[in-house]
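Structure record:
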Amino acid sequence: MLAIQSLLAMSLISSNDALATQTCAARSGAQRVPLVELYTSEGCSSCPPADHWLSTQLPAQQANFLAFHVDYWDDIGWPDRFASPAYSNRQRQRVASAGGDTVYTPQVMVGAEVNGNWRSRSLWQATLAAEQRQAPGVALALQMTRTDDGWRVGIGATGLAADVPNARLWLARYVNGQLTQVRAGENQGRQLRHDRVVTGLLGPWPLSAGTLSQQAMLPASTGDDWGIVAFAQTADGQILQSLQLAASDCGPSS
């Protein structure tokens, strides 16, 4: 089943649709790269510190970060322009898979850990280190090609162990440097900055012990401060591997 945010109009395509003008690629390495999921909202007064924390973590490149904006705050004074019910559902499903039943914002998840302690530097570093010590469960590859119609994305996965059940592959598109002047709700009067904001989520594709190859089309984008993250995840939330490719790696936009 495909979960696609209509704003992006993501769609599966064949590989021969448009003339390529620029191409860039990335491959995962020998170390597992954790995926950090922040569930947040512009309507939540406790969320700006977590949004800022996420932004401060990016230069270290210890993990791939994604900020999922949930929609259940939208009726309490301020509609979050980045929110999607699909992200709220994902949050609930992730918590349920860990045996819980309570979601909240801000909530940070790392693999199967759905209550990451991001406020404590030492505990947070220990959590990331534990994830990084695990061997990758799959090898990932990404390729982006600029075309006359937008961006063609190729996603590959190989080397999944036969004893890993219910593994699935996802592709997220994110944007950085987003500013919002909040005019109502708990954050009224504040200007909020967001990085790694998920603006589209494609998947999941079931993974097997063989090789998976998929293609998708992203529309043309203004500027280069965006990118994609592919990640392989089990039903209980464990991240087997994650891989990022920034649009800036493909050269300046024309």
In short: Residues 32 and 135 are 6 Å apart (CA to CA).
